[in-house]
Amino acid sequence: MDLVPALEEPLKKVLGPATAKVMAEHLGLQTVGDLLHHYPRRYEERGQLTHLADLPMDEHVTVVAQVADARLHTFASAKAPRGKGQRLEVTITDGSGRLQLVFFGNGVHKPHKELLPGTRAMFAGKVSVFNRRLQLAHPAYELLRGDSDETVETWAGALIPLYPATAKLESWKIGKAVQTVLPSVQEALDPLPDSLRAGRGLLPLPEALLKIHRPHTKADIDDARARLKWDEAFVLQVALARRRYADTQLPAVPRTPKPDGILTAFDDRLPFTLTEGQRKVSREIFDDLATEHPMHRLLQGEVGSGKTMVALRAMLAVVDAGGQAAMLAPTEVLAQQHHRSVTEMMGELAEGGMLGGAEHATKVVLLTGSMGAAARRHALLDLATGEAGIVIGTHALIEDKVQFHDLGLVVVDEQHRFGVEQRDALRGKGRQPPHLLVMTATPIPRTVAMTVFGDLETSVLDQLPAGRSPIATHVVPAADKPHFLARAWERVREEVANGHQAYVVCPRIGDDVDEAADPKKAAQKSPEDEAEKRPPLAVLDVADQLSRGPLQGLRVEVLHGRMHPDDKDAVMRRFAAGETDVLVATTVIEVGVNVPNATAMVIMDADRFGVSQLHQLRGRVGRGSAPGLCLLVSEMPEASAARQRLNAVASTLDGFELSRIDLEQRREGDVLGQTQSGARSSLRVLAVIEDEEVIAEARKEAAALVAADPELERLPGLRTALDALLDEEREQYLEKG
To answer: What's residue 209's pLDDT?
Structure first.
């Protein structure tokens, strides 16, 4: 959140071009305001030194310690054959442990003069091991001297801020830069209304910024953080509240289903009863559809809780009321799947205008980018005339050519894959803004829903429909216990022998133009990828090995995103019809694929997938009456974070619990869509999971404030903070959710 013109001064002018360049490139800091909002990660107490005993290997650390001794050695080397090479070894201590510093060559002169025994300093460098001892080679350091007017006692008690730093810019250099711009804090315009600040006993913004960068006591830090958390939560919630408010001002056509129309006919032919949860959520949706303002609702629920059924009933209600409904899916495979399952569920009700169609029937058309010209023309005509009440498609639905007769409802499946432009483009297809229902397949903790989808009302489906089978999940440690992997393939054969089918999921496709060759993807490797040097397992290789080895004699097919859409569809149809025993696929099967006869899933290199993704994939089995089995294969060692993640997935089927674990491990930046875009997360001190209360309170305050003053005319500081939060990238993230 940047501040105001005085704080919009580029750092280049204040700190000089060299430092400003490093700050911009490595920390994303451009202005004085950015730097003031780059808060310390933690504080070191002078006099209470960092524990050298628990230094992490290979990490960039900052330690405060005292020089115990310093020795200069000379040695012969290729560069200095006559024994003129110099090496300075300095041992530092903090009472808990000792650490060796080494300096070579011309770099020894300055530290030799300055690092005398008894000297205290801050040292920064990367921890490495030499001769079985920890050391820092050529660390940067800053002496801690008591100036004439500053006694050692005041130094000992002071808190040294340690900033998120990089190898190019040590923490204390950032600290010095902050010191330079600190006088500007007086110019900071406070985004919080006075009444709110006073009512909650929060510090004024300039004081909070001073205290977070230059605290005298730990209480200063707590007060500053409490205040700055409110800024982040409140500004974000005001942005969302304004979106909600603007949406309620738009007109929409109320859509009330006919008493005995297509919806009633559909409900009558259902072979099962809806769960109480499905009925409750449907009522919430029908109430929204009946109002004169567009519905904006998020429908979230467990994998397999029947969200598609709820969405379909909402679409039929709109068709009953004379409108059309569009369902937007993220991939062609998913659009085809939805189209197939919707037409199957509707039976003759989906055969409007055809012989044998039921009395209230409508047409359900599919529209994707790869359709043939004739089929496409036909579909477009049905949409324009209103003949098709329901259309299911991909981004192709958004193109200019697509005209609707009367678009009343847009259902977006898998919200996080759709950008703001797409949502708005589709909304613009209605004569008046259509109602909007967003489905997300990954359960989201309440706080994240409030933060990310804060402009939507939320409905949660937390019951599984009757007839769903439990899924047993086990981790298969392929490296530690290779016989476990052999047993996994036997289990797959057993399932097939019992008349069932199985999925094998791999992270990569494995043809020549693969992800490994893509420098962008290579740059996104996780630390575990780095640790494990071998490329992730690929569909084409694994399918080949299985067909010739452990699954020889079974009917094995492959499915991945780079196949021609018709081929993908044919593979899915064969699998759904039971003509294939084992489907080796990438994550294209992650959502919406419904084959009740598939009971087993083996996920190769499971550590390469996120927690939510694994939960999502696992939801593809156990969809029928037979119990499901999911095997997570990994070569990561038992103690690794990756294995702990897999153990968490194996231990619970509760998606909300897993999404919480996922979030705690990944931190919020990812959740708020920032890692994808590479931008800084707008959250610096607010932790979405821990600060649930602050977020809930801020949401309440924001809603009241926006209702009273939608344009924020009386709050220029808040308007400025909003403009800074909602630069284009963040505006998009808010809309994408």
So the answer is: 93
